[in-house]
Amino acid sequence: MSGLPPEHPPEEAEGRDEMTALAKGGRTNFFGFVLRLVARIPFLFIAGRMYGAEELGRFASALVLAEFAAMLATMGEKRGLAARLTNGEGPDANVVYDGLLLSLIVSSIFAGFLWLVPGPMFPSGDYSQVDRLVVLAIPAVALTEILLAAQAYKFDIATTVRSRAVVEPWVLSIAAFVLFYYIRDEGLMLSFLASVYAALIVALVAFLKTYGLPRGWDPSPRVMGLIVIRGLPLAGADAIEWGTRRLDLFILGLFAAPSAVGIYYVAQQIASLPQKLKQSFDPVLGPVITKAVKDKDWGRIAKQIRQVAFWIVAAQAGIALTLGLAGDSLMRLVGNDFPFGTGALAFLLAAEVAAALAVTSEAALVYVARVRNLWLSVTTIGLQAALTITFMVIGRQYDMPDGVLAAAAACALFIALVFASLAKGYVLSRILGHSVNNFRWALVYAAAPAVLVGWIFMQLPEWTQLVFGIPAVLGVYAWVVWKRGFTEDDRMLFRKNIAPQIEGE
Questions:
Q1: pLDDT digits (tens, 9 = 90+) for 134-146
Q2: N or C: which end of the chain has fewer CB within 10 A?
Q3: For position 260, what pLDDT does the model report?
Q4: Diameter of the chain measured on Cα atoms
Q5: Burial letters for 5-38: b for 16+ Cβ neighbours within 10 Å, e otherwise?
Q6: Helices 258-295 and 298-325 meet at what angle, rounded to 10?
Q7: Rounded to an integer, what distance in angstroms lies between the CA atom of residue 96 and that of residue 75?
């Protein structure tokens, strides 16, 4: 390391290299987020305008259980794989194939069960034999998650962008449009199947180029058992973190009409866009944290969590403000029946901002306190379930309209995620001995003028809000955050080739 300047000790250089990797991964996946946003809008328009709220609600209810089963079937390998590869438990390819085989077995069992007992996927009782084929998505989604996690360990984020942000949403939109004219009643289900298998193929091709076929691979029940034992807390945390964004939809389906579920699903899809920003950092945050955990460098982990959590909450807050102020116009764009979900959209957007510290803290907790993290996740989803059911029962008792029930379900999610952020941030701070708090007053300074600009545009015609209001609100917010909130370290997110080069690497 003779070329290393004396003012940059090896530990500092390593830390900057890792932050640069995080920033680069975030930039790459942020581009994917933009692509996914562009592709998601046509699908929502096609599903809302052509298929209608009731058909969309039936589709959404089926997806909840199928995707939940897929998350469980990963056996925690979405994040646990990075730790197993870092620990060198065998040739990299063989380590990944162990996880793939286990996931294929578990996902096939789940798919078989739900094929035989489809009732939970269709609470309204309205489904066809073709609709039941949605269970075939379970193995595809589970295997794709592990394949992309394996690519991310090699810092290949471009494959995730191609698979999740380009191929999957565009196949979904195009197939939904074409199938509407041939098999309307099952068009959405078949479109979803086509999209997840297209994403799987993209991930598999890239994986085979990177890792190749296994050599000397001897699958062992003992190894599989160890993966299950170590992966269950991770699988539970992954499934619960995902489930908090779907439980409200499931419970709402038990109390409200399918059309209400469909409208809520659209609000959820719009609100989930800020969540994708958090996922922009997931693929690289795991490998970086596992290396710091191996070195027992708790201060480095805390700094990484604080930095990434601020990047996420700053972006999420800006997008949430923008989408929230234009919420009524966005919902009306999907269909005339959809604006009654605007209240739910507002709570869902607020929930994503509140969740920023929880999801970034969890990225470290799954490696340093996985059981405690699991219990906090269980408590969070339990709180959400209790609040949602309570709100639904009270709403039905007083004959409240479905729009109020939808907003109440979203409010329950918001409260639960506030609790999760406070609890997980506190626990991680105690373990690391360093603060992971990501709040900065600059977020408030930026929100105030953005709200004012948004209010001005709300007084103008609807098309003006969408065409000019959205970029104006986002522009004002971003300018203030950049000037008042971003430090020099924060600005590396938007720069390239800034890491110190170490001679000999």
A1: 999 999 999 999 9
A2: C
A3: 80
A4: 75
A5: eeeeeeeebbbbbbbbbbbbbbbbbbebbebbee
A6: 160
A7: 12
What residues have CB less than 8 Å from 494, skipping those under 6 apart?
27
* Six-digit token string for 169: 């949403």
pLDDT in tens, 52-84: 878 888 888 788 888 889 988 988 887 778 778
C-alpha distances out from residue 295 to 14, 86, 368, Å: 12, 12, 12
Report the length, in residues, of the chain.
505
Instruction: Please tell me the distance from the alpha carbon of residue 390 to that of residue 108, in angstroms, as a whole number.
Output: 35
**In the numeric block, which tokens belong to residue 218?**
């001897």
| First-to-final CA distance of the chain | 8
Q: How far apart are CA 238 and CA 283, in angstroms?
A: 14
Both tokens assigned to 385: 């379930």
Closest CA to 247 of 96, 89, 380, 438: 380
Query: Could you report the per-residue pLDDT of 164-209, keeping only the tens digit for each?
Result: 878 998 999 999 999 998 888 889 999 999 999 999 999 999 999 9
- Single pTM value for the model: 0.70
